[in-house]
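tool_log.txt
---
The assistant was asked to compare two proteins side by side. It first ran the structure predictor on the initial sequence, then on the second. Raw inputs and outputs are pasted verbatim so the downstream comparison step can read them without reformatting.
(1)
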Amino acid sequence: EENLLNTIFKTCDTESTGHVAVAKIIEFVQLTISCGSEDSGLQELHTMLDPERRDLSIDMDTYQAIMCEWIEHRRTKHLCYRADDVETQDELKAVDVPEFVLAEPSTNMTRFSLQARKPAWGDRETSDLISCIADLQHTHMRLLEDNMKLKGSREMADELNAKLVEQIDTLSMQLRSSQVLLQRDESLKDEIEELKRSLAKVEEEHAHTNVLNKQLKKDNLQLTSNMTTLQDEVVKLRSENDFLCKQEIESGITMEDIKKQLQELEAVAAERNNLLFEQRNNHLKEMMETVSEY
């Protein structure tokens, strides 16, 4: 009887949590003994397992204690009915009392002994119930084996998952490094573009400076030419001065007049020379200021 109760509990405890919902136990017993949900025996069992009908879940010890109490109560009740009316025994067994309740308790009920044992009352329903319980035990063992296989598969999956997590972490680090390198590359590209723009600007300024230098050289040549012209004019003036001196001597002009005229001519020549030099210096100064600005 204890082995039978354990089998029912383990069959209902599909997830091996050690707790089973009362409604699940009632449903299993109902299907096993083929009775309606309004059966008085099932209602009594439901009340004993869950007095307040709160959809409780119970453990193995509580389940066994209450089930043993209920079986004993139903057995006693059945014996009382037998004493009153023997003719109603078959009806009571089929409706109110499960066959494993009517059977005598056994301490050595295993899977094979359940199959070999004959019903206490020679009833076919009891034989079917015992056969069903044996099948359930076999199914339970197979489920345990499947569960072990699933646990092994789960452990392998956990190991694979851990490896995948490590690979993901490694790839994430590589991705971050690549992103940093890409950012640096973009920064270098921006710096290179900025340098290119600066270089283009410097080249443009250099070209402009070359143009100014060429202009300065041209102006310098022009000034040099002007200086040469002035020198030629000075020579010419001196020649004229000499000629005038001769004419003065010849015409009786005194030396003082000649000197005075010569001084005037030299003053004029010096003034023109100073003016040209001043113009040249001013022009050079303006050109240098322009170059400095660029």
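(2)
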Amino acid sequence: GVIGALVAVLAYVATLNPEDQADRMGAIAGVAQNLRLIGALYHIKSVFDMKTTEYVPYHMTFAMTFFILQMTLYSVLSGNYYMTVGSIPGLLLCGLNLSLYVIYPPITWKVPILGTQQRAVE
């Protein structure tokens, strides 16, 4: 499982030259960090299918956007290339999530910061 994959990655990196080990681990960490976006992509697909953000928690969306924005800014200012590459896809996904609150607003509640809500069809 996961432990076996971790052992395999560490064994692979141990076979590299010491000068290349940090770069390779940084690249592997960036890829692993972006694997966490699969769940967010599933939620975005469900918003497109239902045509509403009714079931997308805005608290989490805004908190994650703020957190990933801070992480991206820190990585750029500190010159950490791998952290920047790992953060940018998450930041883009957060931007897409926020735009979905405008494109497909919730039905029964108003998005607090954006103030969007679907109008009742009469």
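---
observation on (2): The mean pLDDT is 88. The chain has two domains: 1-35, 37-122.
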